[in-house]
């Protein structure tokens, strides 16, 4: 009886300590970003952060959001103090100086699709500094580079943008530029900076992608809302994230193979890789792509070789590529494109 009483007291003390720790964490870190929302419900952001760029985007049924159309789309980042840049956004909501309806696929023009997030979009860079334009200038008029990159996109949304337009634009090559954060975004039903826009969130069941629906259990709600348990929950979700990304990669490879195209996946390092390469998904992803007959490239070595400290590759006070970083990315992608077409011509 005494042993049982001591056990109950210890359990009660443990629960009390956890509650006190939870309360302290909420007081000292009220803006901590908890795990991303994984179900498409209507809950508000757990960190109550105000959207930063929402007025520059519009809802898209399949992709979640695209840019607001116009010749003078532009915004400044008041968080990192980046000045406003203006981009031409076509009627489909992507950064291109032409509409997709004007692309003639009956010609011998070699079409290259660029997909990804704000890195391939070239956020805060003028048009002549953008990755798309740099690649286009290097390749010449026999090629047409088409940019499907959208700020805030995750790995899934980037892939979905390809599915949306691959049959209309009929690309020979799809260049997918991603950062590690894009893989973590595959679970999100909303994106912190674009809170109003819901987007597709997936899971893998029986080897197939299935879209998540409403119906979050009380266990998941508790894990997502606790500052303590959330740390362990995020670790658990990493396994699911890579499974979803792998499934998207397999579909991407199969789709491009069926359409006689090539899928080139480029990983771009970020400022977190300044000290060492944090590519925790690369080996698994690279092996999967190679096995499907396509290509994977980690740009970390090229960037580190160019400058050990990554100095100048990112905008000051911001994590996005600078004009120097964009040139390095564009140069490596261009080399891969030219190598691919050289191989095709020799066949």
Give me a quick take on this structure.
With 347 residues, this protein is α/β, with parallel strands linked by helices. It has a single domain (31-346), classed as 3-Layer(aba) Sandwich (Rossmann fold), CATH 3.40.50.
Q: Describe it for me?
A:
The chain is an alpha/beta fold and 347 residues long. The protein has a single domain, classed as 3-Layer(aba) Sandwich (Rossmann fold). Helices cover 40% and strands 19% of the residues. It has ten helices and 13 strands. The protein has helices at residues 2-28, 118-121, 131-139, 155-169, 180-184, 218-225, 229-258, 282-291, 300-306, 323-346, and strands at 57-60, 64-67, 70-77, 82-89, 110-116, 143-147, 173-178, 190-191, 194-198, 202-205, 208-211, 262-267, 295-298. Strands 6-5-7-12-13 form a five-stranded parallel β-sheet, with helices on both faces. The protein has a two-stranded antiparallel ribbon with strand order 1-2. It has a two-stranded antiparallel ribbon with strand order 3-4. Strand 1 and strand 2 form a beta hairpin. The longest helix has 30 residues, at 229-258. The protein is globular, with a radius of gyration of 22 Å. Residues 44-48 have low confidence and may be disordered.
């Amino acid at each position: 009886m005494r042993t049982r009483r001591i056990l109950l007291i210890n359990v009660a003390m443990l629960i009390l300590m956890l509650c006190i720790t939870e309360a302290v964490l909420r007081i000292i870190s009220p803006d901590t970003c908890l795990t991303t929302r994984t179900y498409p419900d209507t809950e508000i952001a757990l960190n109550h952060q105000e959207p930063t760029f929402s007025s520059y985007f519009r809802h898209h049924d399949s992709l979640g959001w695209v840019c607001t159309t116009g010749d003078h789309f532009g915004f400044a980042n008041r968080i990192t103090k980046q000045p406003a840049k203006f981009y031409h956004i076509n009627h489909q909501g992507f950064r291109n100086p032409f509409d997709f309806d004007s692309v003639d696929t009956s010609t011998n023009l070699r079409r290259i699709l660029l997909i990804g997030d704000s890195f391939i979009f070239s956020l805060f860079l003028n048009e002549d500094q953008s990755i798309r334009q740099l690649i286009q200038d290097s390749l010449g008029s026999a090629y047409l580079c088409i940019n499907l990159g959208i700020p805030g996109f995750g790995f899934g949304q980037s892939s979905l943008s390809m599915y949306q337009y691959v049959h209309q634009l009929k690309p020979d090559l799809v260049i997918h530029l991603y950062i590690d954060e894009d893989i973590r975004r595959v679970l999100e039903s909303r994106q912190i900076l674009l809170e109003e826009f819901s987007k597709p969130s997936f899971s893998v069941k029986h080897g197939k992608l299935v879209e998540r629906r409403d119906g979050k259990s009380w266990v998941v709600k508790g894990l997502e809302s606790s500052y303590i348990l959330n740390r362990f929950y995020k670790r658990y979700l990493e396994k699911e994230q890579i499974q979803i990304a792998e499934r998207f990669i397999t579909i991407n490879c199969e789709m491009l193979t069926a359409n006689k195209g090539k899928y080139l996946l480029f990983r771009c390092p970020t400022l977190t890789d300044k000290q060492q390469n944090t590519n925790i998904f690369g080996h698994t992803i690279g092996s999967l792509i190679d096995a499907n007959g396509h290509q994977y490239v980690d740009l970390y070595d090229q960037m580190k070789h160019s400058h050990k400290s990554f100095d100048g590759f990112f905008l000051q006070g911001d994590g996005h590529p600078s004009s120097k970083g964009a040139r390095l990315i564009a140069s490596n992608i261009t080399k891969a494109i030219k190598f691919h077409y050289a191989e095709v011509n020799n066949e």
